[in-house]
Design brief:
alpha/beta, TIM Barrel, 7-stranded parallel β-sheet, 32% helix, globular, binds flavin mononucleotide
């Protein structure tokens, strides 16, 4: 199950108890990647999203993880820092942080609804190491909560990807300029997480072809940048890379000519393919040897027993968009399994 932000948490980044039902109902996925979870208050970019930086949040996650385990599933926590994809309203009026002070297109999801993004504040060189420590603490907290592993969110133009790409990273310190410098902070963060978990319990989410949040091109040498990144991830012996092929939810086209198969060949661990997969497409790609595993996102919203449905060819339910982000248990943890009535 691909990570799905569902915005049911409270202002303290704590999920209500029905979140355990929702995840346990989806244990048939085999491996669930949790909704993106903030590693620190500074990481927050969307209202009502969960956190993993304090003890109360660890306590809230523990029964959720236990419920998935009791239902026979595994669950990784997705570690998130949104960087500039945020809003001052989520930071007591302070500016969101980013590698460089470049305003993203589009709007942020705040408690009062959608608001235009602001120009972020560029991080000072000395501040970057503290964010690496935030990743380390969040990883340790995920372990304390009982998760089976963690996925580092380095996709969709959130903070790590903002550092990776030369359009959003225009720094001239040790964290900007050359590919090696642009990868320094993301790899430091991943190394901190690996220190806690061991590489065989850590995956990384990548979106080499994304055009989010709407600016193109996002990198002047995307294959060089991502080829080097994937080589570094492979050297570390990470469990998997989880690639969003194309632009998440929008298209499977790779506008920058990104070659996913070529990137995959550079990585020794597992390759999880994602974005608009159907069973037929997954079977074709598996047959062609272009992926090891597939994740699905949206189909899980209204089909808790998605894998069973795919296995027997049962019809899939559609979740109206009004239920995707925010609200209570309705349209969230009340979708029936096939044959049962709602
Ligand atoms: C409601 C919703 C929330 C999402 N939240 C996340 C998230 O928290 N982290 C992430 O990496 N991707 C997130 N995504 C992207 C999905 O993981 C996935 O890439 C996308 O839905 C495409 O896969 P699909 O066609 O199987 O749905 C989200 C997508 C949707 C629809």
């Amino acid at each position: 199950m691909a990570p799905l932000t569902r915005s049911r948490s409270n202002d303290e980044g704590i999920s209500p108890t029905f979140v355990a039902d929702y995840y346990a109902q989806r244990a048939g996925a085999g491996l669930i990647i949790s909704e993106a979870t903030n590693i620190s208050p500074q990481a927050v970019g969307y209202a009502f999203t969960p956190g993993i930086w304090n003890e109360a949040q660890v306590e809230a996650w523990r029964p959720i993880v236990q419920a998935v385990h009791d239902a026979g599933g595994l669950i990784f926590l997705q570690l998130w820092h949104t960087g500039r994809i945020s809003h001052p309203d989520l930071h007591g009026g302070e500016l969101p942080v980013a590698p460089s002070a470049i305003k993203p297109q589009g709007q942020a999801f705040t408690k009062e609804g959608m608001k235009d993004h602001a120009t972020p504040r560029a991080l000072e060189t000395e501040e970057v190491a503290a964010i690496v420590d935030d990743y380390r603490r969040a990883a340790a907290n995920a372990k304390a909560a009982g998760f089976d592993g963690v996925e580092v969110h380095s996709a969709n133009n959130y903070l790590l990807e903002q550092f990776v790409r030369d359009s959003t990273n225009q720094r001239n310190d040790r964290y900007g300029g050359s590919i090696e410098n642009r990868l320094r902070f993301p790899l430091d963060a991943i190394d901190a997480v690996v220190d806690v978990w061991g590489a065989d319990r850590v995956g990384v989410r990548l979106s080499p072809a994304t055009t989010q949040p709407g600016e193109t091109p996002l990198d002047s040498q995307v294959m060089e940048t991502y080829g080097t990144y994937v080589d570094e991830l492979s050297k570390r012996g990470l469990l998997y890379i989880h690639d969003i092929e194309g632009v998440t939810q929008q298209t499977r086209d790779a506008p920058d000519g990104v070659d996913f198969a070529a990137l995959r060949k550079r990585f020794d661990g597992a390759y999880i393919a994602n974005n608009q997969y159907t069973l037929d497409l997954a079977e074709q790609v598996l047959e062609a040897g272009d992926a090891d595993l597939f994740s699905m996102g949206r189909p899980f919203i209204a089909n808790p027993d998605l894998v069973d449905r795919l296995r027997i060819g049962a019809p899939l339910a559609e979740a109206p968009k009004e239920y995707w982000y925010g609200g209570g248990s309705v349209g969230y943890s009340d979708w029936p399994t096939v044959g049962a009535s709602r």
